[in-house]
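User: Can you model how 48F sits in this protein?
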Amino acid sequence: MEKFITQAILETYLKEFLEHTEVDVAICGAGPSGLLCGYYLAKNKVKVVVFERHLKIGGGMPGGGIMFNKIVFQKEVLPILDELGIDYNHYKDNLYVANSIETISALTYKAVKQGVKIFNLLSVEDVVIREKKICGVVLNWTAVEQAKLHVDPLAVLAKYVVDATGHDCEVAKIVEKKLGWVSVKGEQSMWAEVGEDKLIENTKEVCPGLIVCGMAANAFFGSPRMGAIFGGMFLSGKKAAEIIIARLAK
Ligand code: 48F
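Assistant: Here's the modeled complex, given as structure tokens:
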């Protein structure tokens, strides 16, 4: 039996990975913005894969605000919460509160059921380029990265790469450092209203083939952080998906 357990895991994992060595979209980071982006892409029949460095999925969401596992949304995002089957309560004015564990669980479930493939424990350490376009990601096991082992990576090709790596804006920073194609300003201190508005405006293609979304978008353009309010993250992930769907349709 042990042999079959091993074979079952290896065969099914490798089959899935092999099927995703060339995709329409590679999303770096399985936080709220990356997962929402993946969900809407898959819903529109786009072949999409998410690579997540950590063991757990969800980025900054499960921790709520300083480990109090509640998160806040604005009224305009309620249709998305309804679509995902997430419960919420009105708090005051335009603000609603939801459970962060339920939110990330529902979002992950819906994304996976829609067809998003998520590979955890894999870190994006570089990008693949052709001429002046980003056209894939370079991956290594997080364990290799953490142990600083000298092990060569593998690459996955993609028509579009999404930097949804959060505050560190890691993929864009790699492009800045190695290629000089972009300039990352770094996020500003907290100003929730401005940060939330800017997030949507900042979600865009920053060089051919690379889209920034979520907190990475604000870090890219030097806009403020906003704390445990997540409406902007959801809308940013959705907008990133819409940009890519429009590009792919051309
Ligand atoms: O940080 P994260 O949740 O990004 P987000 O979707 O949402 C931000 C909010 O959680 C919060 C906030 C709300 O107001 O400001 O911070 O923008 O998720 C980013 C994910 O990317 C992974 C990281 O482990 C996390 O789960 N990640 C970061 N760098 C890499 C990566 C990398 N190089 N390769 C793979 N995954």
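A couple of observations from the model: The CA atoms of residues 24 and 114 lie 15 Å apart. The pocket of 48F is lined by residues 28-34, 51-54, 59-61, 123-124, 164-168, 170, 214-216, 225-227, 229-230, 233 (CB under 6 Å).
User: Helpful, thanks.
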